[in-house]
Amino acid sequence: MSYVIPVPTVPSVPVAGGTSRFPVRRIYCVGRNYAEHAIEMGHSGREPPFFFMKPADAVLPVEPGATGNMAYPSLTSSLHHEVELVVAIGKGGRDIEAGRALEHVWGYAVGLDMTRRDLQAEAKKQGRPWCIAKGFDESAPIGAITPAAQVPGIATAAIELQVNGGARQSSRIDKMIWNVGEIIAHLSAAWELAPGDLIFTGTPEGVAAAAAGDVLEARVEGLAGLRVELVRR
Ligand code: MN
Fold this sequence. Notes:
Elements: E1 12-14, E2 21-23, E3 27-31, H1 35-40, E4 50-54, E5 59-61, E6 68-71, E7 79-81, E8 83-89, E9 105-112, E10 115-116, H2 117-126, H3 131-134, E11 140-142, E12 146-147, E13 158-163, E14 166-172, H4 180-190, E15 198-200, E16 208-209, E17 215-220, E18 226-231
Parallel strand pairs: 3-15, 5-11, 6-18
Antiparallel strand pairs: 1-2, 3-4, 7-10, 7-16, 8-9, 8-15, 9-12, 13-14, 13-17, 17-18
């Protein structure tokens, strides 16, 4: 079998503590999953989970200890950071029960759901899709994935983001409205999950704009950190 054009590279994320990598199939994202963030965006924080997607090759994988370079994207003057726990699916399925959902999780990472907030606000106003606001190139910086068995305390871990050394976002994973098991249950009712899927589980309050030259340091307790510098295009 031959292809008529070069075969695209499989996007992948480093795995902590080794040289193996996790191949990415799809990137799902949960909207408004922390009450305080839902409120800062003008909502009650009491709605069922909803989802959007980013292309798999929107990942910007960053090795532990390294600094990733993210080019400040085109078309926006309001690039927001959203620090999030990312779930890496190792075993697929559909209609997965929340109580058994963690059996499908291979590991966890910290990620940034970078957002062209001005374009998202315009899309909301016009009733248009969010793709241009959420699914642009390099919109999903992500640190190394840690196997789930190595982070038994993930459900109550601290999550935080610093910009240029100053605190911007700080919360705990147990403040999610929908926990990881419930997210997987809802997602797998709508799509069949498969190994390689990543789920960005929503951001806590404190989202704000970042500028070219800023250094973003994202952390979830127990996981490899994520350091990204925004560079001028
Ligand atoms: Mn988000």
